[in-house]
Amino acid sequence: MKKKIVVLISGSGSNLQRIIEAISNQEIQNAEISMVIADRECYGAKRAESAGIPFHKIKRGTDFCSQLEACLPPDTALIVLAGFLSLLSSDFCYNWRGKIINIHPSLLPKFGGKGMWGMHVHEAVKAAGDLETGATVHFVTPEVDAGEIILQGKVVVQPSDTPEDIAHKVHGVEYEIFPKAIEKLLKGWKE
Ligand code: GRF
């Protein structure tokens, strides 16, 4: 039986695309994306559609998590947040503990927490003058970006890099570590 992954998105979905590719070329073995869920209109929805993956949009708001809970297939092995911007409730995080992961575009615990998303992260790295940044795959807990770290990948920042250059490099390392982290978890890490 293939392990079922549900991917939550809010944006362009390039990490979703990478996961689709990693499943089809067996970097992630014996798995399938059973559903993609978005909390808003986004380009990632088109990627799910093109790949023939069942897609749902659930409107952002207070009852988001109860609707999400109702539409998640019960045999879901892993919930993957791939550029997903809504916060999940404490109850939801508890019910699915150890089965929800997120990718964050910095080397956590640096540049994490509320307000640290998208270009804000890369602008903060630039402002700090850091010459190294990267991406982190971690478990999701109710505290934003604070769950246990599963895998990190680093990139070098040149002093001349703009926040956009940094974002581009970080996306590159995300495409390397996200499939590896998913494969590692599906193989039973932490069971
Ligand atoms: C990634 O940089 C990820 O770290 C962050 O959101 C971005 C999503 O990019 N959580 P994409 O939609 O996968 O292109």
TrEMBL record:
The active site is at 104 (proton donor). One of its GO terms (molecular function) is phosphoribosylglycinamide formyltransferase activity. Residues 3-182 form the Formyl transferase N-terminal domain. It comes from the Bacteria. (6R)-10-formyltetrahydrofolate binds at residues 60, 102. It is an enzyme of class 2 (transferase). Keywords: Purine biosynthesis, Transferase. Catalyzes the transfer of a formyl group from 10-formyltetrahydrofolate to 5-phospho-ribosyl-glycinamide (GAR), producing 5-phospho-ribosyl-N-formylglycinamide (FGAR) and tetrahydrofolate. This is Phosphoribosylglycinamide formyltransferase. The gene is purN.
